[in-house]
Amino acid sequence: MVMKSSHPKCSASITISHNGQVTNVSKESHKIVSPGNSVDPKDVHEPMSELEVMIIIKFLKRIKERCTNEDTGPNKVFEEELNEFFKNLKTEDEKKIVASLVPRYDDIKYGLHKRRSKTRPNLPDSLRTTIIDGIYTKTTNKIDQFLIFKSKNNKKLVFCSKTGLEILSKSSE
Prior knowledge:
38% helix
């Protein structure tokens, strides 16, 4: 993860590995300007504290883990984790600080979708080469069959849950 300075006059950055270790620091120096009498407030720029950096690392690490291990979409994971994260903050000041630190979803969505796609099977070239087995033949409870019928060469595939089939059989049309 690369963290860049948010101040417009500073182009310093730092790269942090998935386990929280600093792996690279930019050659550009960090232009730190502390508040003072003769300093224009727009030029004040102070570094993030270790606590602020760790908050962001913990937040992003949790999102990345969930996108890798769950079927939930990355946007939903981001939203859920953000809501959970903010529930644990006590003061409005804490919420403002964290809100300014958390990256926007649009800035990280490509990486989250890429991470998620690595755990998915590749799209098949044709129906004939498609192999449908395992979790793709079961409903979400992983017990009931979802793939009801499969013809030779996969030309006809019928998917239906047990409940859906019962409802369909009771239909008058």
